[in-house]
Every structure is written in C-alpha cells, then in structure tokens.
Amino acid sequence: MLPSRQKHTPSCQSISYINTSPLTVLSASKSYIHSYTPSTVTVYLDTRNNVSSAGHGNPAIADAVHQQMLLQNSNSRYLHSSFNELKEQIAARLGGADDDGRGPWKIILTNAGSESNDVALRIARAHLQHKRSCKTFTTYTYSMSYHGHSTSCLSVSPYKLRKLGHHDSSLYCPPDTQVVWLPTPCPSSTPSPSTAFDAAYTPSPSTLMFECGMSVAGVVLPPASYLSSAVSKIRSDGGLAIYDEVQSCCYRTGEFTCFQTMGYPSPDIVTLGKPLGNGFPLSACCVRADVLESFENEGLEYFNTFGGNAAACAAGLATLSELDRLRPVSDTTGALLLGLLRDLHNKHPRMICDVRGRGMFLGVEFLNVRAPSDPSPEGTLELSFVASRLKDFHHVLTTIDGAKDSVMVIKPPLCFSPQDAAYFADCLDKAITECLRDVDENGAMGVLGCGATST
Ligand code: PMP
C-alpha cells in the first residue's frame, strides 16, 4: 500500500505513524477506526479526530448527503432552502449579533478552513483600506498558530513556517505579518524570539488573527482578560479581530465556539470548519455586516464552485442537529476525562508536567524524563514512545503537537463514551508505566517516532 501511495504522492504529504506502521482504514464507526491487513482487522479507539465530531460513519449525516445528492446538488447561484437554513442555524448559535446595531452575521460558505481564512483576510484588508484609508496592512498572528495552507494563510501560520528551519518563525513571515507570542502558563509555550503583543503593537488600524483554542500549539487557551485587552486595543485604533475557530468550533470546548466557552469578546469575523460537515467539505466565514460592506462594494464577485452546494448544506444541517444531541458530552465526558488525566498527572509527575483544556479539547504535556531540566526537543522521545505503545499495544490513536512536540492533544469525536474515556486513561497509564520502566532499565527507549501531528 505504501509504495503505491508514494508513486504519485508528493513526499511533503505525510502519513501518521510512518515510522512504525501506518494504518490502512477501510471503515470506521462512532469513536472507532477499523484498520485492515490481509489477515486481521484491528479496532482502534480514536482520541484525535475532531473532524468526525458527530462520530465516524454517522448514518443520519450520510443519509442526508445521500438523499440530497440524489435530488440535486447545484451551486449557490440557484436558490435552495438549506443554504439559507444552514446560515440561520450558524448565526443563531454564534449569538448576539442582531441587537447591537452592527447587523446580522453575513456568512460565506466554503469548502475548507483555508478558504474561509483566506476570504476573512481579504475582507479585513478591504475594510482597512476603504474605511480606514490604510496603505499598509499589519496582521498580528501568534507564534505556533496555524491558519491554513493557502499562500495568504501560510503567511500568518508560524507553526508551519518554523519547519523551514529557523527557530524564529517571524523571519519567514512577510513584513506585514507581526508574530507575537502568547503569555500562558503552559510549560511548552516558552516564547520564541517573537515579542509579546503588548510590546509589538503599534497604534494603527490592523488585524488580530487569533486561533481560538490553539490546537497545534498544544492546547493553549489564554484567559478572557488577555483577549479582552488585545481586542479592545485593536478596535480602539479601528482594527479588526478575526477568530479562527476551524478546529475549536461545534461544541468541542462546551459552547458552540471556543470564544463563547472562554468568554472572549465577540469577534468581527469568525471562521468555522473541520467538524461543521462531519467530514464533508464545509467551512464558513462569518462576518459582521458592517465589516463586510467594503468587500461587497469592491465590485469583485465572490463565487466558489462547491462552496455552499446543496449536499454540503445538507451535511451541515444534519451535523448541527447531531451535534446538538451530543453537546452535553463535551461537559460530562470531558470533565470525567480531565479528572482521570489529572489523576495520571499526580501518579506520574516524572512524566507529566501539565494537564489542561476545556470540554473535549484536552492536552497532556510530557517531560523529558531522562533530563528533566533539558528543554530541548529531545524531551519528546518519551511522548513518542507512549504514543507508539498506545497504538501498537493498546490500539488507541493519539496526536502529538506543541512547540516541542511534547503535548498529547486529545480531541475525540463527541460520541466518546465514559467507557472510552476510562479505557483511554487506563491505557495511557499502562503506556507511561511501560515507558518509565524502559527508561529506568535501559536508559533509552526502543520504539521511536510516532510523528502523528494533527493539521
Ligand atoms: N485553521 C486551523 C486552526 C486549523 O487547524 C486548520 C486545519 N488544521 C485550518 C485553519 C485549515 O483548514 P483546512 O485544512 O480545512 O484548509
């Protein structure tokens, strides 16, 4: 399977578990992924797939798409009711827009988070140019944030750009991007050479691009006070706040969006993605009406061939309906799992230095056991070992991320049951114990290189 993939696939498109044994997935159901070899079927517990938030193979969503494809699947230049209905449903969940004089949320439906963030940046630029007479367009973005794979999104995605080889990702961002770091208590978020927002900010209309619920940064959720002060600073100079909720939307952290869960100020633009279609390509760029005006008046039509087609809207409506049902899981099973992970933190202080997150968006930060004071990326070997053991011996799929690849990021489908949570915590306990035994007996570890990052 692997050689035939390599034949026509660029090597920069990576595979999870490449160093041990990549999975061949032929089916999946709820929180489980079924992997096939010619002789066996293995069922894995999935703790990492926030896209299939309403569960793998969700029959209600599959059926809604199937029925719509049979009926018709025209683009958004023809009228179809689900196009309006989906926007009503999204706007109702974002809340608060109709009564504050800024008009309703205007929503552009796209196929991917990158497309939504790309058009969000264009809208912000048009607003700053036409309403604020800007000639330069500074965008503040956070070190370790990721906003997508298009040229404009990459230019504000230090998480990806740092892979070009220099510790200071700001060197790779274009001059109008200012990389700032986030003051958080997370051990892994030691600032790179970029400066804090307060120090970097120069009063002029600009854009704050903020990934709510930073996932690839290793589950970083700054306090509301931080966002309130950053957003009011940006707004007081006529600038805009864009929140990227592509990862964190759809009840992952409890409320519909992470900004609602965390009590951050409501943004000017918010993008939604990944879970919105439960795997069907669907994303949304939601904009306050007063901010959209300049973009609307520029005279350039926004047409997106597949964006908001009837099947995508059917997927979105069915997904929201399923997620409304599953929403309490974020609070209940999320709290249960957080408690179990905190117990593991207490039990294994040599291995775990922090457990954090909200709802079903949790992070476990690992230490470098062999050299606890060594902050080098080598500290990730233990986590890599644990993740490999979890997959190969306990059949649990996990994600590793964070600035030093030292955080296990947990964001399972929301149908994750209390039994799934207990099973996962038990397996994690065993894998950590096995890892510590290996370190103590051998001084080194046998299995390396899980490499299962999540973007
Ligand atoms: N923003 C965030 C926060 C993301 O995590 C991602 C994808 N991982 C994107 C944007 C880009 O989304 P897509 O891959 O759908 O273009």
From TrEMBL:
UniProt key word Chloroplast: no
In Pfam terms, one family for this protein is Aminotran_3
What UniProt keywords apply to this chain's record, in alphabetical order?
A: Pyridoxal phosphate
The UniProt entry, under InterPro entries, shows:
Aminotrans_3, PyrdxlP-dep_Trfase, PyrdxlP-dep_Trfase_major, PyrdxlP-dep_Trfase_small
Read off the SUPFAM superfamilies from this record.
PLP-dependent transferases
The UniProt record lists the keyword Phosphoprotein: no
Family, as annotated: Belongs to the class-III pyridoxal-phosphate-dependent aminotransferase family.
Instruction: Identify this protein by name.
Output: Uncharacterized protein
Which species is the source of this protein? Tetraparma gracilis
Q: What is the lineage of its organism?
A: Eukaryota, Sar, Stramenopiles, Ochrophyta, Bolidophyceae
